[in-house]
Amino acid sequence: MAATTKVSQYGTQDGQEFVAECFAGTVSGKSYDNEVQAAYAALGGPTTPDLSS
Fold first, then answer.
1. What is the DSSP string of 24-46?
2. Which one of 11, 39, 50, 51 is least enclosed by Cβ atoms within 10 Å?
3. Are 33 and 7 in contact (CB under 8 A)?
């Protein structure tokens, strides 16, 4: 999944790590593009103001 490389190297380990890294980045103020947001939602990531779908 190409979206994982846009988040962090650790986020490429598996889907749960990707979701965790995305969530942590978002609550820390980082923004992600639509591809990352779609992958986050597809993997069941909890909604946040910046990653709601």
1. HHHHTT----HHHHHHHHHTTPP
2. 50
3. no
Query: How far, in Å, CA of 39 to CA of 24, rounded?
Result: 15
What the block records as the tokens of 27 is 């609550």
The domain limits of the chain are 2-42
Rounded CA separation 50/44 (Å): 15
Instruction: Measure the CA–CA gap between 48 and 12, rounded to whole angstroms.
Output: 21
Tokens of 25: 């980045």
pLDDT bucket at 12, cuts 50 / 70 / 90: confident
Cα–Cα distance measured from residue 24 to residue 45, given in angstroms and rounded to the nearest whole number:
11
